[in-house]
Amino acid sequence: LMEAISSPSLRQISHFTLQGLANTAWAFAVLDVGDTPFLDVLASCAVQRLENDELISLRRPEATVCAGSLLGAVGALRLARRAQRGFSEAVRGAVEALGRHFDADFPGTLTM
Questions:
Q1: CA diameter of the chain
Q2: Measured between alpha carbons, how far is 10 from 6 in angstroms, rounded to an integer?
Q3: DSSP secondary-structure letter at 109?
Q4: Which of 36, 98, 35, 43 is nearest to 73 (CA)?
């Protein structure tokens, strides 16, 4: 079933939201679908959007949910031994940048 979904999804992947990319990566990983070309394209698309700061451009509640979904997708892909090159690093960098962005809303409240 997932292989049948991946082919038409490739044509539409540019229309996926960042949340949609994260959810799709998680679903393929959890179901242990071995469609590596699809996961490669999906991860590449997500990395490109993360590098363009799409996560930070979201409203705070949406960004928080999306960050959690991206982290969940990273974990699921790793557990399924389907980690995609650059995806984990891009998610980590984007989530860290998001944290710094949120911290800037409350200057002086955090001490190290």
A1: 52
A2: 6
A3: S
A4: 43
Kindly compute the dihedral angle of the four CA atoms of residues 66, 70, 71, 76, in this order, to the nearest 10 degrees.
Answer: 130
- Measure the CA–CA gap between 29 and 80, rounded to whole angstroms: 6
pTM above 0.85, yes or no: no
Residues 90/96/100/102 CA torsion (nearest 10 deg):
90
87-103 and 36-51 helices cross at what angle (nearest 10)? 30
Q: Rounded to whole angstroms, how far apart are CA atoms 35 and 17?
A: 20
Nearest to 82 by CA among 37, 46, 112, 50: 37
* Angle, helices 36-51/2-12, rounded to nearest 10 degrees: 40
pLDDT digits (tens, 9 = 90+) for 36-53: 777 788 888 888 888 888
